[in-house]
Amino acid sequence: MSNKSAQEMAPAEVRALIRSGEWNVNTSGISSGYVQGNIVILPKSWADDFLKFCQMNPKPCPIVGMSDNPGDFMLSSVGDDVDIRTDVPSYKIFRDGKVVDEVTDIRDVWQDDLVTFVLGCSFSFEEALVADGLEIRNVTEKVNVPMYRTNIECRTAGPFSGTTVVSMRPMKPKDAIRAIQICTRFPSVHGAPLHFGDPESIGIKDINQPDFGDAVTIKEGEVPVFWACGVTPQVALEQAKPPLCITHSPGCMLVTDLRNSQLAVL
Amino acid sequence: MSNKSAQEMAPAEVRALIRSGEWNVNTSGISSGYVQGNIVILPKSWADDFLKFCQMNPKPCPIVGMSDNPGDFMLSSVGDDVDIRTDVPSYKIFRDGKVVDEVTDIRDVWQDDLVTFVLGCSFSFEEALVADGLEIRNVTEKVNVPMYRTNIECRTAGPFSGTTVVSMRPMKPKDAIRAIQICTRFPSVHGAPLHFGDPESIGIKDINQPDFGDAVTIKEGEVPVFWACGVTPQVALEQAKPPLCITHSPGCMLVTDLRNSQLAVL
């Protein structure tokens, strides 16, 4: 492993380490400035409906890249030498909606009909917010962002349906206004928040008991601000129960060659 | 007067009616799509500091046009034939900070050292919000928007200082997020809101008792959203007490040839 910090390493270097088995953990904070993606891999017969689900629910399921053709394991749309079978530090394999294995290489389960989706994640917009001087509480408190199931229905596509999962970051109102402006520039990493303030009005019973991730401190004068979250498609996948589905393990993302700034529409 | 509705009349037609004395009332809703401006006229010796005050406090005091030179009464920057001495339906004349007269023509008080400022007003962004399908409560309830003094200090320039006055429109959080996106495109008509939610945190004691304008209904599930307001410079002027100052009368604005859409930065 080189002497460079993981934060400074180019995405291709990181992927080479992952491919060789030298890196099989969390990718948080590595290759700063580059897009990391959530991974969903499905058989072609399920992938068409999943693509439609993402298209109909772009805030929780923003696609930043996908296979050119079924069976392609080289993902040219997100990087020069990305082999999706080996370049993610850890994979979860689901059969009929249940996790059956967690592995660091999927070459032996690869099929000619598999389609890969790379979905944008909040790492990209958090970087833009921090760069603007805003405090991100889950970063400051060094925990996973709190995530909640809501009553906001997704639009259904074939077997894929469910309600939206949101992530929450508490902010002062004036910082929330600035965050809305910044995140509006990044529609492919969840875009502007969906809601702020009263948790109950979107079906969240107890803000201190997230359904996923960790609770964070909400200070006096702050309001919870809610973004659509990439856990939404995972929940839809678990409900749909495809015969085979492969995802990244939590926090172990694909590091792409796309720069976060390239996702900005303005 | 023509048979066209006031809403459809071109700004030049409206100004001709005003100049001839046939129109001396509120300009709300006329020449739809065109920018209406707040007017401030000051002697050159005070105008330099007022310009600096506007520059330092652009959210409450956004300049959309001003005289090319002191003494110029034709305002070429905002329209083809705008004579600021006759083209506003009603003027207030202040001497030493006190209203001394309300008139429909200022040709006889005009001086060679007078400088005119045209400041953006909320009519322009309200039009953009309504066009997007959002409800503006003061429009629906046919009253003046509620306005409040806050504890948000303006930056001081010479004799001009004070706190920011805000206007308030109640919205559901998801509409407030959309309003922030839309208003961000219009920095010269107050731009994005300054605050939402808790009124007390910006020094507003009772949301049902506005300092200017009328109270509006805040429904269950709505939050008050606060924008910087053009009354801010009026308060600063009253405190500064210049020997002469001329403004429009409330609601009786200058109708310019600029289109609201031209104020959009994106």
Automatic annotation (TrEMBL), chains A, B:
InterPro entries: D-Glu_cyclase, Putative_hydro-lyase, UPF0317. Coiled coil: none annotated. Keywords: Lyase. Its EC number is 4.2.1.-. It is an enzyme of class 4 (lyase). It holds the Pfam family D-Glu_cyclase. The keyword Isomerase does not apply. It comes from the Bacteria. Belongs to the D-glutamate cyclase family. NCBIfam families: PRK05463.1. This is Putative hydro-lyase OFY17_08820. It comes from Marinomonas sargassi.
